Every structure is written in structure tokens, then in C-alpha cells.
């Protein structure tokens, strides 16, 4: 009789084990996606904590419509190489707040005749609505249009006009990689896992109809550096105005101002590897 009772409980024990296992598996997948967000926080801190607030990169953030952060793009090149990594896209609203992140994957087939391995932090500053909407496509290729052509930033990059600015910071030995030809593809699986529903980038960064509190740290760090950029810009404007007032002798200057040409493309620059990466 006791033996029969034991076999009677076997299905219940199996069901209990299955139920207890399923959430753990789901949580593991969610934790993997959350790690992309957490590493994006560190990448943003690594870039902005090691430069002056008067640097033109702060100005780019201040004026950006959206930002894409790729905390760890791995380049491998043995004669012919490739790269890949995860990215997140966040947009700014009129109140200087930021959306929750939409997840993407970046990939590329080749970076030319180079040798080595490089891990790179990549930040894309999307400067207008048109360029942001292009990124909302299921797949976007750098260099496929005038607004996505790779180019080196000049020393007066803050005065130039571009649709997307590309900033790379590498701690590896392999340098000189270009983003031209790289593909950005929506990571639908990660978006689904992170928000526990089927959503696309437009729902996340444009309509802002979903939110995950676990992304608040990333949103707050972008708000922090945006505020620093805004305050720095005001201080520079005020200082320039004071200088102009002091140098004004009453004459009226009728000379035309220089007009900077608009190239409407991605401008790139590589930052040197930090001596020691700060982690907060």
C-alpha cells in the first residue's frame, strides 16, 4: 500500500521540479540582457569621467536626439576579420529625460588586412530625428546612405555638422577599425526578455510605452552627463559674452561670419586607452 502511494506522488514531484526550474532559466536569460545595460553604464562613465566637460564630446551629448552605446565590440582580424557585440539605443525627450533601452546587435564581416584582437567601446550620437528613424529599421548598415558614411572628425568637430557622430575608445592592441559597412540589427529576443512582452524599438524609444526600472541607472547617468554638458555650455557662452563686452570698443563689425559646410555624415574619432578604467 505504501509502495502504491509513493508512485502516486511521482508526477507531483516532477511537476514541482519543472515549475521551480523554469523561473531560474528565465531569470538567467534576463540577467544576461541586464548585463548589457550594466556594462553600458560603465562604458559611458569610462568615456565621460576621463575628459573635461568643455570637450566637444559633451557638446555632442547635449545636442543628441538619441545615443547608441555598444559597451564591448570585439574585433578579430587574421588577414580577414570581423566584429560583433551588443548595443543599446536610448532617445531623449523634451524634458531631457531618456527612454528605456532598445537592444541591437552590431556585426561586420571584415576590417581589412590587420592582425590582432581589440575590444572597443562604441558610442553613436544620433543628432536628429531623421537619423534616429533610420536606426529603427530592422537592419541598418553604416555607409549605406549619406547620413551613415564613416569619416574622421577634425579638431573642430564641435563646429562641424553631422547626422551621427561615432566615438570609439579601445583598450586593446588592435587599432584603426572602421564602422563603415557595419550592420546594426534589432535584437528582438533581448527586447522581449527585458520587457516581458513583444515590443520593437519604436515602442521603446519613440512611444516610450514600456519601461524597466532596472535600466534607471543607465538613464540617470545619461541625465547626469547631459546636465554637466548643459551647465558647461552656459558657462562658456557667458564667458565668451563677457570677453566680447570687454573687447568691444563701440565699432560695429559688418564682416560676414564663416559658414561651416554641412556634410551630414558620421564623424569618427578614436580615444586613447585609459591608464586605469574607473568603475563605480
Verbal overview:
α1 runs parallel beside α6 (about 215-245) and α2 (about 55-65) crosses α6. By secondary structure, the protein is an alpha+beta fold. Helix content is about 40%, strand content about 25%. It starts with a helix and ends in a 9-residue tail after the last strand. It has 6 helices and 8 strands. Strands 5-7-3-2-1-4-6-8 form an 8-stranded mixed beta sheet. Residues about 15-25, about 145-160, about 170-175 and about 250-265 have low confidence and may be disordered. It has helices spanning about 1-50, 55-65, 130-135, 190-195, 200-205, 215-245, and strands spanning about 65-80, 80-90, 100-110, 115-125, 140, 165-170, 185, 265-270.
Furnish the topology, listing elements before pairings.
Layout: H1 2-48, H2 56-63, E1 66-78, E2 80-91, E3 102-108, E4 115-126, H3 129-135, E5 139-141, E6 164-170, E7 183-186, H4 188-195, H5 201-206, H6 216-247, E8 266-271
Parallel strand pairs: 6-8
Antiparallel strand pairs: 1-2, 1-4, 2-3, 3-7, 4-6, 5-7
Helix pairs in contact: 1-6, 2-6
Task: Summarize the model shown.
The chain is an alpha+beta fold and 280 residues long. 39% of the residues lie in helices and 23% in strands. A hairpin with a 1-residue loop joins β1 (66-78) and β2 (80-91).
Amino acid at each position: 500500500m505504501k509502495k502504491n502511494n509513493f508512485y502516486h506522488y511521482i508526477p507531483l514531484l516532477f511537476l514541482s521540479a519543472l515549475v521551480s526550474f523554469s523561473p531560474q532559466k528565465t531569470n538567467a536569460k534576463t540577467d544576461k540582457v541586464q548585463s548589457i545595460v550594466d556594462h553600458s553604464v560603465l562604458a559611458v562613465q569610462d568615456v565621460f569621467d576621463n575628459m573635461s566637460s568643455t570637450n566637444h564630446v559633451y557638446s555632442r551629448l547635449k545636442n543628441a536626439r538619441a545615443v547608441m552605446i555598444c559597451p564591448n565590440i570585439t574585433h578579430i582580424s587574421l588577414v580577414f576579420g570581423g566584429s560583433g557585440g551588443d548595443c543599446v539605443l536610448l532617445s531623449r525627450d523634451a524634458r531631457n529625460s531618456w527612454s528605456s533601452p532598445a537592444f541591437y546587435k552590431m556585426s561586420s564581416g571584415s576590417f581589412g588586412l590587420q592582425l590582432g584582437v581589440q575590444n572597443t567601446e562604441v558610442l553613436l550620437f544620433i543628432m536628429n530625428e531623421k537619423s534616429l528613424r533610420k536606426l529603427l529599421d530592422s537592419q541598418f548598415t553604416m555607409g549605406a546612405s549619406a547620413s551613415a558614411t564613416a569619416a574622421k572628425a577634425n579638431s573642430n568637430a564641435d563646429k562641424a555638422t553631422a547626422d551621427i557622430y561615432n566615438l570609439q575608445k579601445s583598450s586593446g592592441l588592435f587599432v584603426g577599425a572602421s564602422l563603415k559597412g557595419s550592420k546594426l540589427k534589432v535584437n528582438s529576443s533581448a527586447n522581449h526578455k527585458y520587457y516581458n512582452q513583444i515590443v520593437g524599438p519604436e515602442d521603446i524609444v519613440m512611444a516610450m510605452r514600456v519601461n524597466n526600472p532596472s535600466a534607471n541607472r543607465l538613464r540617470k547617468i545619461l541625465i547626469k552627463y547631459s546636465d554637466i554638458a548643459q551647465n558647461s555650455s552656459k558657462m562658456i557662452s557667458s564667458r565668451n559674452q563677457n570677453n566680447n563686452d570687454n573687447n568691444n570698443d563701440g565699432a560695429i563689425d559688418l564682416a560676414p561670419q564663416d559658414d561651416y559646410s554641412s556634410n551630414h555624415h558620421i564623424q569618427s574619432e578614436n580615444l586613447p586607452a585609459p591608464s586605469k578604467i574607473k568603475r563605480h
